[in-house]
């Protein structure tokens, strides 16, 4: 059991929880305890049951079997729902925003709980309360403008404020920092420490293992719906944690970087400028993984989108394979052998009404035309099957809807789509966002397999460690421009960091 | 290897895909059950009548199906039907233009209307509901200006064969519907462009990033809708041998009901041509039974309204799963 920081009675106690979904056991006899002033990491691969457990606590799901105690009081599971959980001071901060974009931060924070003066909303009172709240948080987010105008990190503060406004004693962070730049993560850490000091219990879900060592007191590992281990972070090593999560010995998360770089320059950009970036000079060779590092808003995504013809180019030259080209739309980009793995997998990468096969062949439908009109569906199935097996995709049928796959497997389908389309230049925008360690490692191996075949990969990632582990060459972008370039043998994390934060030169 | 082959087989014959189309199966069962209820209903004449009455509306619904499939809505079909009916009759009766040529002219007109709808949606970024509502009103105005609101009768009786003629016991109209349905079935499920409609309806942005010319697909859906509406309009016109500016006024509701009944998702990306045909038959059977039972017209509207809302409710429930 966890060593308690304070010896009070637990905030949350889950006893022998089982949650069944049609055809799957999402949680199998899992117990979990959260104490006041404890930051408890909940870790495991996608599909391990973290979200399910958290949703059973927050009232979104009802347990099939088991008991739930909140602040020592047993809950009647039948009457338990999100509203009831809120009344019992349980708040949740989602990774994907559940904010009303057009409304101000203030409106969002108190929505559903506005204080009233007669029939009218008492804005003065709300404003005073918000002011106190933000003073407590030591944060100066402007909560009087529509939320859509705020930065990602600030939106998360608003979500957190919403949980606190309901007087939460338990706060669930669901992959909060997955999309934040370093400086904002530090701010979140500061706030977490503040909450801990005030006796608030925190359940912390994250795929970034470093964070667990940075802020958490204790951990619980789940795998395939089963409880694996609970313990004290102080006595844990990173290697052991990885082993617990993946259930297997991972010699290394990052494979050996292959010696695959050829002498042929494949992509060359000269003064390449467009919406969100300026004067980019960049070269990438066949068989090379080229990393682009930068903060959120540095122009990395915009650059990839422009290369792919989905964001206007205003100036400069793009050379591919020694030929100068202009790409005006994704269709033309695909014709030139480019493929984009976008950052928003679900919004941009996948077609959620389609099954595995139809997603896999979407980028190259022309390949399957018979008599220039009809689709050769047999060949489609064969190709999809070959590539998906090659990618080690875990699926039961090619007709399975893409939604039923885990995040890591969905991403494999997106990459498989470009393999089927015979892509030479892979533009990867945060390809491992929100997927678990095991699947990440598989994607890393895949990236290296691609370059070993002579393909070229341009990799954008918010995790510097990932770029350092995978790339032959790294460019650093700051405010739309490239400010630093370094080859593998000269990689220095400190140096890259300095340029990343704009304090280089 | 055998494992892989087994999976391949499983991929294609999965029971799930059939259950996915449960609406179609359900409708079919209801159809058969209903038709065995009443001996008057079961006669060949009556069944052929139902098929004939359903056929032109089914063709129009197949047009709307494409627009709903890409996640949009075409309100202008009522006016397309009206303007095609009145112009065709006008060309033939007033101007003495041969029927074949008149047919080509109204077809080109409908293509043009479809393109306008599509352009407004794609480049004007006007919500399709509003864009097509505007086009609907403009077309309505034009057809009243052209005809003064009066019907134009006197089309040659040979034209009436389209609606009333038959081959053996099977009406021409039914044959036409089957031909259109088969072509569109193959088009949607066995061609690359057909797949694109589903892709755009499912996720337009992801489709664009997969190299699909989404703008073209959207415009094409509106054009197909207009063309099929005008073919249906000619069928309806041939029934009375006269062009009429109010011919399509009540049809939009039936067309929407048919599409939804047939399992077309209003949020786009899901639906099948076969479903639309069965949906059309189902609606016609319901109407027919109500007529046989002597239910008055206004009450029929109420019943149809209830059917639509029930189906939409079932659809939205099943989607939550």
Secondary-structure map with pairings?
The complex is a heterodimer of chains A (505) and B (321).
Chain A: E1 12-21, E2 24-34, E3 39-43, H1 50-58, E4 65-70, E5 73-74, H2 82-87, E6 90-93, H3 105-110, E7 116-117, E8 120-121, H4 123-137, H5 152-165, E9 170-174, H6 182-197, E10 201-205, H7 209-215, E11 218-223, E12 226-232, H8 238-246, E13 265-274, E14 277-285, E15 289-293, H9 300-307, E16 313-320, E17 323-325, H10 330-335, E18 338-341, H11 345-349, H12 356-361, E19 369-370, E20 374-375, H13 377-390, H14 407-420, E21 425-429, H15 437-452, E22 456-460, H16 464-470, E23 473-478, E24 481-487, H17 493-500
Helix pairs in contact in A: 13-14
Chain B: H1 2-13, H2 15-20, H3 22-37, H4 39-42, H5 44-69, H6 77-94, H7 99-122, H8 128-147, E1 152-153, H9 161-164, E2 166-167, E3 170-171, H10 172-190, H11 192-202, H12 204-209, H13 214-240, E4 242-243, H14 251-261, H15 273-292, H16 297-320
Antiparallel strand pairs in B: 1-4, 2-3
Structure description:
The complex is a heterodimer of chains A (about 500) and B (about 325). With about 500 residues, chain A is an alpha/beta fold. Chain A has three domains: about 10-245, P-loop containing nucleotide triphosphate hydrolases (Rossmann fold), CATH 3.40.50; about 255-335 and about 425-435 and about 455-505, Rossmann fold (3-Layer(aba) Sandwich), CATH 3.40.50; about 345-425, no CATH class. Chain A contains 17 helices and 24 strands. In chain A, the strands form six sheets. Chain A has a six-stranded mixed β-sheet with strand order 6-9-10-3-11-12, sandwiched between helices. A six-stranded mixed β-sheet of chain A has the order 18-21-22-15-23-24, sandwiched between helices. In chain A, helix 13 (about 375-390) packs across helix 14. The longest helix of chain A has 16 residues, at about 180-195. Chain A is globular. Chain B is mainly α and about 325 residues long. Chain B contains 16 helices and four strands. Chain B has a two-stranded antiparallel sheet. The model of chain B is unreliable at about 5-20 (pLDDT under 50).
């Amino acid at each position: 059991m966890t060593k308690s920081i304070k010896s009070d009675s637990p905030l949350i106690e889950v006893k022998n929880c089982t949650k069944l979904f049609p055809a799957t056991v999402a949680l199998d006899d899992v117990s979990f305890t959260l104490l006041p002033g404890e930051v408890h990491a909940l870790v495991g691969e996608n599909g391990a049951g973290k979200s399910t457990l958290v949703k059973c606590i927050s009232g979104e799901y009802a347990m099939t079997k088991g008991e739930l105690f909140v602040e020592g009081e047993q809950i009647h599971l039948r009457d338990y729902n999100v509203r009831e959980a809120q009344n019992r001071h349980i708040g949740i901060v989602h990774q994907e925003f559940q904010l009303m974009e057009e409304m101000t931060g203030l409106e969002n924070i108190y929505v559903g709980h506005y204080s009233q003066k007669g029939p009218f909303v008492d804005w003065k009172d709300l404003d005073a309360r918000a002011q106190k709240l933000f003073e407590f948080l030591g944060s100066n987010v402007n909560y009087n403008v529509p939320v859509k105008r705020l930065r990602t990190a600030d939106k998360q503060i608003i979500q957190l404020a919403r949980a606190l406004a309901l007087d939460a004693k338990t706060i669930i962070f669901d992959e909060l920092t997955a999309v934040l730049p370093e400086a904002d993560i530090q701010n979140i850490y500061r706030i977490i420490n503040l909450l801990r000091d005030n006796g608030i219990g925190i359940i912390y879900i994250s795929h970034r293992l470093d964070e667990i060592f940075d802020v958490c007191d204790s951990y619980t590992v789940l795998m395939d719906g089963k409880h694996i281990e609970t313990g004290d972070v102080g006595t844990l090593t990173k290697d052991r944690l990885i082993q617990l999560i993946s259930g297997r010995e991972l010699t290394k998360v990052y494979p050996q970087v292959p010696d695959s770089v050829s002498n042929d320059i494949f992509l060359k950009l000269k003064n390449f400028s467009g919406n969100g970036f300026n004067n980019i000079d960049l070269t990438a060779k066949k068989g090379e993984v080229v990393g682009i590092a930068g903060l959120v808003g540095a122009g990395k995504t915009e650059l990839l989108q422009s290369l792919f013809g989905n964001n206007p180019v205003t100036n400069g030259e793009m050379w591919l394979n020694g030929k100068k080209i202009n790409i005006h739309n994704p269709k033309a980009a695909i014709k030139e052998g480019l493929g984009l793995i976008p950052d928003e997998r679900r919004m941009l990468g996948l077609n959620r009404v389609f099954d595995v096969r139809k997603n896999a062949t979407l980028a190259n439908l022309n390949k399957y035309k018979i008599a220039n009109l009809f689709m050769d569906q047999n060949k489609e199935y064969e190709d999809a099957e070959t590539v998906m097996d090659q990618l080690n995709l875990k699926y039961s049928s090619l007709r399975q809807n893409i939604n039923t796959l885990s995040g890591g497997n969905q991403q494999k389908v997106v990459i498989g789509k470009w393999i089927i389309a015979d892509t030479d230049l892979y533009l990867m925008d945060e390809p491992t966002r929100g997927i678990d360690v095991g699947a990440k490692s598989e994607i890393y191996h895949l990236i290296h397999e691609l370059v070993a075949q002579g393909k070229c990969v341009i990799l954008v990632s918010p995790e510097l460690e990932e770029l350092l582990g995978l790339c032959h060459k790294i460019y650093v972008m700051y405010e739309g421009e490239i400010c630093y370039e370094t080859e593998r043998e000269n990689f220095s994390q400190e140096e890259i960091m300095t340029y990343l934060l704009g304090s280089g030169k | 290897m055998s494992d892989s082959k087994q999976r391949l087989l499983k991929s294609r014959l999965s029971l799930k895909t059939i259950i996915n189309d449960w609406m179609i199966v359900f409708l079919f069962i209801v159809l058969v059950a209903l038709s065995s209820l009443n001996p008057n209903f079961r006669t060949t004449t009556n069944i052929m009548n139902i098929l004939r009455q359903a056929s032109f509306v089914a063709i129009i619904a197949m047009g709307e199906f494409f627009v709903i499939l890409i996640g949009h809505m075409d309100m202008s079909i009522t006016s397309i039907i009206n303007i095609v009916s009145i112009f065709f009759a006008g060309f033939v009766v007033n101007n003495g233009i041969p029927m074949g040529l008149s047919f080509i002219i109204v077809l080109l007109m409908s293509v043009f209307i479809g393109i306008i709808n599509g352009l407004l949606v794609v480049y004007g970024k006007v919500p399709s509901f509003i864009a097509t509502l505007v086009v609907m009103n403009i077309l309505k105005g034009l057809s009243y200006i052209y005809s003064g609101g009066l019907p134009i009768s006197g089309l040659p009786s040979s034209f009436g064969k389209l609606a009333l003629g038959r081959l053996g016991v099977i009406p021409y109209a039914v044959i036409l519907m089957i031909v259109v349905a088969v072509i569109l079935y193959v088009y949607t499920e066995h061609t690359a462009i057909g797949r694109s409609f589903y892709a755009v309806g499912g996720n337009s942005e992801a489709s664009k990033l997969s190299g699909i010319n989404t703008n073209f697909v959207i415009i094409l859906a509106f054009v197909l809708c207009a063309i099929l509406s005008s073919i249906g309009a000619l069928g309806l016109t041939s029934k009375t041998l006269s062009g009429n500016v109010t011919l399509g006024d009540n049809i939009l509701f039936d067309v929407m009901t048919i599409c939804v009944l047939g399992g077309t998702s209003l949020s786009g990306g899901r639906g099948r041509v076969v479903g639309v045909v069965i949906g059309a038959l189902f609606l016609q059977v319901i109407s027919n039974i109500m007529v046989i039972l002597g239910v008055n017209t206004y009450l029929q509207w109420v019943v149809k309204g209830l059917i639509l809302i029930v189906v939409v409710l079932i659809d939205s429930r099943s989607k939550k799963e």
